[in-house]
Every structure is written in C-alpha cells, then in structure tokens.
Design brief:
Layout (H helix, E strand, L loop, with lengths): L9 E4 L3 H12 L4 E5 L12 E3 L3 H6 L10 E9 L5 E12 L2 H14 L3 E4 L2 E7 L2 E6 L4 E4 L1 E4 L6 H5 L11 E9 L6 E7 L2 E7 L5 E8 H4 L5 H7 L5 H8 L2 E2 L5 E6 L7 E2 L2 E3 L14 H20 L6 H30 L2 H13 L3 H10 L7
Helix pairs in contact: 1-3, 1-8, 8-9, 9-11
Length: about 375
C-alpha cells in the first residue's frame, strides 16, 4: 500500500509495548494506523520483564494471552540491601514475567492481523501545521496524519528536534541485561541492591531467568569491563553472587544501554501524545515500567477514539484531558519511584529503611501498591 496517497488516521512512532498496544486498540475501532519502528521483530531489549497484573484485562481486550505465550505467574517479592539484608512479601496484585522478545513479537503479529501497517525506518522529524502532522523519516519518506503518538522509548533524535529539556542533560545511569538458565522460583520477582545500583531477577518464558541491573556509570567506568564490575561490585550482594555463579548465560554477550534519564518529561510535546518511556521513565527499583507503557497506550487510544467520534470537540480539549488522565495514573507512581530510589542510593539510610520494613511488614505492600496501580478498566 502506498501510504503517501492513502489516509493515515494515527501514526505511531515506535513499535514497542506502548506503540503496538495503541496500534491494536485503534485498529480494532477500524482506524487506519501506521507504525514506524527502527528495529526488526523479534528483538531482545534491556528491560526488567516483570509486568503487574493490572494490565491483564487490557491485554485480553487486545486478544493477547500472555500465559499461552509462556509467561510465568508471579505473586512473591523479595528485596535486599547492599549488605544482603533480605525482606520478603506477597505482591498485592501479582504480576507475570515475559520477555520483550516474546511480547513485542506477539503484539506486532496481532497488530498486522488487525491491518496495522508496520514499516522499518527511523523518524527524523515531526512537523505540525494547519491541524495536521507531517512525519519525515531517515529514508526521506513523508507521511501525513491527523494524530501522532510518540512511543519511541527512552531517548531519540526526535527529542533533540523537539528541544525536550531532559535530552540536554547527561544521565549517569547504565543498564545491563542478560538471560540465564538455572534454578530460581518462577513465582518470585527479586530486587537486590548493590553499591550504586540494583538488579531485578525474575523468570520469563522457556524457563529463562531475566537478570537486569542498573548502575551508576561513574562507578562502572572505573572497572575494565562488565565482568570485573560484577565480581567486584555486584557480587558484594551475596544473593546476586549466588544467582550469577549458579546459572548459565543464554546470551553470548550481555545487552547494555546507557544515558538512561529519570528526569521529568512532558507527556505532551508539539501536540504529540507521548506514551511509555517516551513520556516518563519510572525507576526500575519499582519494577513496573512495562505496565505503565501499556496503561499509557490505553489512555491515549481511548481519548483519540473519543476525539475522532466528536465526543471530545477540539484538539486542545483532547490534549488537556490526556494530561489530566496521565497525571492521575502516573504522577504519584513516579514520585514514589523517585523517593525510593533516593533512599536506596544511600546505603546507611537503606539499611535503616529495611529495619523499619522488618518491624512493620505491612509498609512494603503499601509501597508496592503505590507503584502498581489497579486492574485497568476497559472502555
């Protein structure tokens, strides 16, 4: 299909969790949707790969059964400090583990089954004029669309073009991810802290264990390589040392990503509705970024449908409503995430916090609820 000469109701930049969920949602309502994604499917991504059950009703609405895909049901949580003090609790809502390799591919296939067109290209610029977007790609393709959703991830050249504030500042964080094989409870997600960072551990499909950690880059670069950093820093946490030493790597090399920014972003830029990590990035310490991406897609898609159906009369009203609903859903989560990250970034304070959590075990489930939301309502 020649998209230059055909109608595009919604153009989505980025084909990850948020972009593909929006694409399926809008296509189910018979809108013409184009997704521009720079990578091929399937592809592993640096990600914690734990998702709160809050999004299950929405994924079912999108006709995605994660458990048929091999997702592991998770209802237990463990947290340890840099000095290997451990606390355990039950996850109030529960969740599941599934890889981005698996879930992104399933969403992409479902999107195409619903007549969504996905092209592999990189968006270089987005212009808005006369109530219409023009999207320009690296391959010099030009697309026009009534609506644009930004779901391209943590950072991109588009952020520079849009002059987004966060992109001007360097971020001190590096993330590393690997899959391994070995013994680990499939109903457990663990978060183990080490000096300058923390590592999430959970099982995904095919009995692989996802290990994903984030570290302060200034600390990391004082070591020769990932292996030395792990042995001299990460393994000071005895739980992490045991997991790494008793498992076998699946990947030939770990995946890494740098310049991760937890600074405030705006969910709306130049009339583009931002979703997922493009709108905000919650600290992995809270382990629920994937759920937030899917939830933000549902909010944006439902409002766009109302706009097209004239239930929302103007673009300005749509944008104001999106900001309201986005803030209601996520502002408190992000605030809690920043607070917890700041606490665990200070070893002495985190040890005191852990003692408090052991004395008052009901506090940890309360904190988890503050970052995990409730079961999504489908409109």
């Amino acid at each position: 299909m020649n998209r230059k000469n055909s109608k595009i109701d919604v153009l989505i930049i980025g084909g990850g969790l948020a972009g593909l969920s929006s694409a399926i949602h809008l296509a189910k309502h018979e809108y013409s949707v184009l997704v521009i994604e720079k990578n091929k499917y399937p592809k592993h991504k640096v990600c914690g790969e734990y998702i709160s059950n809050e999004v299950l009703p929405y994924l079912n609405y999108l006709d995605i059964d994660v458990f048929k895909l091999g997702a592991k049901k998770i209802d237990k949580f463990q947290l340890s400090t840099t000095k290997s003090k451990l606390i355990s609790t039950i996850l109030p809502l529960g969740g599941f583990g599934i890889s981005r390799f698996c879930l992104d591919e399933a969403l992409a296939r479902k999107a195409m089954d619903n007549n969504v067109e996905i092209i592999q290209d990189t968006v270089e610029d987005v212009q808005f004029d006369n109530d219409q977007f023009t999207v320009i790609t690296k391959n010099q393709k030009h697309f026009k669309s009534k609506m644009v959703i930004g779901a391209y991830g943590k950072r991109s050249n588009i952020d520079i073009k849009l002059k987004r504030q966060f992109i001007k500042n360097k971020s001190p964080y590096l993330a590393v991810k690997m899959h391994v094989k070995g013994d680990f409870p499939e109903d457990l997600v663990a978060l183990h802290n080490f000096e300058g960072g923390y590592c999430g551990v959970s099982k995904v499909e095919n009995d692989s264990i996802n290990l994903c950690y984030i570290a302060n880059f200034k600390v990391f670069k004082t070591y020769k390589n990932i292996e030395e950093f792990q042995h001299k820093v990460v393994f000071k946490n005895t739980y992490l040392k045991n997991i790494f030493s008793r498992t076998t790597p699946v990947f030939e090399h770990p995946l890494t990503i740098s310049q991760i920014s937890f600074e405030d972003k705006k969910p709306l830029e130049n009339h583009i509705l931002m979703c997922g990590d493009t709108a905000a990035l919650i600290h992995p310490l809270c382990g629920n970024g994937m759920s937030m991406a899917i939830r933000s897609a549902q909010i944006a898609s439902a409002l766009i449908i109302k706009f097209f159906n004239s239930e929302i009369s103007t673009r300005e009203a749509l944008e104001k409503q999106y900001l309201r609903e986005w803030n209601t859903a996520f502002k408190s989560r992000l605030k809690t995430g920043h607070m917890m990250a700041n606490l665990f970034d200070q070893p002495k304070l985190s040890e005191i916090l852990m003692k408090g959590l052991q004395w008052f075990p009901g506090v940890l489930p309360y904190i988890i609820k503050r970052t995990h939301g409730k079961l999504m309502q489908i409109e």
